[in-house]
Amino acid sequence: MYFKTAFVLSGLLTSCFGAVNITSSMPSVELTVNGKSVKIERIQNSSNKLKNSYAKTSRPTPPFSLQPIEPIAGITTIGELEIISFLQQSVATNKGLLIDARLQKWYQMGTIPTAINLPFSMLSANKTAPLNVKILKLLGANQSGGGWNFTNAQKLVIFDNGPWCNQGVLAMKSLIALGYPKNKILYYRGGMQYWQLLGFNMQMKK
Questions:
Q1: 190 within a domain of the structure (yes/no)
Q2: For the chain, what is the radius of gyration of the CA atoms?
Q3: Could you read off the pLDDT of 144-175 as tens digits, one per residue?
Q4: CA–CA separation, 129 vs 107, rounded Å?
Q5: What's the CA gap between 192 and 203, in Å, rounded?
Q6: 200 FRET partner, CA 20 to 30 A, in 1, 7, 45, 144?
């Protein structure tokens, strides 16, 4: 009798609370990027807990100093819902890029779906460095009259490990030093830690 009652109660709870949606009106999101179907959703197991390094609460400071909400004046900080909107409106239409600024070893362990890896360590403030020139061109900027024209440059959302990580901030500072417009850069401060804490799916890289 006990097990039967427990089973019925479990069913009632499931029907009352339903699935783990992104919002009450958004169960998941599907989009097409570069011809490939991408789905953003949350882990459906409501008992799921992190077992990796992102479950850790305390890190030595320095070097893992907390980043302010607005680490760079003029660059807007966003959350998870804004990332999803950016994926739908900008990434899916080839007008924007989601940038994982972490070192490659972190990127390969898992990232936000559609993110491309541009490690902060590859960027510098040197406007004539061949690697920086190549990166700016890949981001859609054009050399013009000895300088750079960013009219057609991609909109960017930049993230790293989370609030205790400065890799994204360093990447943004380098891009700004190279002339990249602040109004074309957004910052996801929560990074991979918040993304995983909220149960969002990841894209594994090999």
A1: yes
A2: 20
A3: 888 999 999 999 999 999 999 999 999 999 99
A4: 24
A5: 11
A6: 7
55 occurs within a structural domain: no
What is the rounded distance in angstroms from the CA atom of residue 167 to the CA atom of residue 71? 12
Which residue range(s) make up the domain with 76?
Answer: 60-206
Task: Assign 206 a pLDDT band (cuts: 50, 70, 90).
Answer: low
133 assigned to some structural domain: yes
Of 175, 38, 168, the C-alpha closest to 112 is 38
Full-model pTM: 0.89
Share of the chain above pLDDT 70, in %: 91
Across the range 90-100, mean pLDDT stands at: 98
pLDDT digits (tens, 9 = 90+) for 2-24: 445 444 444 444 444 568 999 99
Counted domains in the chain = 1
Sign (positive or negative) of CA dihedral 65, 67, 68, 72:
positive
- Name 180's bridge partners: none
How many Cα atoms are found within 13 Å in the side-chain-facing hemisphere of 82? 14
Would 4 be classed as within a structural domain?
Answer: no
Q: Angle CA(190)–CA(194)–CA(195) in degrees, nearest 5? A: 105
CATH number at residue 117: 3.40.250.10
